[in-house]
Amino acid sequence: MKKFIDIGINLTDPMFRGMYREKQVHQGDLDLVIERAKNAGVQRMIVTGTNLDDGKEAVALTDKYDGFLYSTVGCHPTRCREFDHYPEGPEAYLQALRTLIKDNLSVVAIGECGLDYDRLHFCDKETQLKYFKVQFDLAKESGLPMFLHNRNTNGDFYAMIQEHRTFFTHGVVHSFTGSLEEMQQLINLNLYIGINGCSLKTEENLKVVQAIPRDRLMIETDGPWCDIRPTHASFQHLNQAPKDEMDLYLIPNSKKKEKFEMGCTVKNRCEPCSIG
Question: How far, rounded to the nearest angstrom, does the alpha carbon of residue 99 sit from its chain's CA centroid?
Answer without folding.
Answer: 22
